[in-house]
Amino acid sequence: MAEIAAFGYERARDELVNVVKMLEQGGLDLDESLALWERGEALANRCEEHLAGARKRVEDALSRTDLEDGK
Predict the structure, then answer these.
(1) Could you please report the per-residue DSSP string of 26-66?
(2) CB atoms near residue 30 (< 10 Å)
(3) Taking a C-beta distance cutoff of 8 angstroms, is the pair 33, 19 a contact?
(4) Separation between Cα atoms, residue 29 and residue 8, nearest integer Å
(5) So what family is this one in (predicted)?
């Protein structure tokens, strides 16, 4: 799952959607289900990392704007 660390947000999100669909369909044995669940967790964490980074960038941009406006 180390390759997930290199995924962009959209790729991680799209793969997470696919993992959820596969789990919802069922028909997998326990080991396959657990492996998919773990992959889904890793993909969700990667998405959150991207979102946290985007949130930070927006907050920084707003802070700079406030400083420039003298607030």
Answers:
(1) ----HHHHHHHHHHHHHHHHHHHHHHHHHHHHHHHHHHHHH
(2) 7
(3) no
(4) 30
(5) Belongs to the XseB family.
CATH number of the domain encompassing residue 63: 1.10.287
Domain residues for 18?
Answer: 4-69
Helix 30-68 to helix 9-25 angle, to the nearest 10 degrees? 150
Q: What is the pLDDT along the chain (71 residues), one digit of tens a residue?
A: 789 999 999 999 999 999 999 999 999 999 999 999 999 999 999 999 999 999 999 999 988 877 777 76
The pTM of the full predicted model, rounded to 2 decimals, is 0.84
What is the rounded distance in angstroms from the CA atom of residue 66 to the CA atom of residue 62? 6
Q: How many structural domains are present in the chain?
A: 1
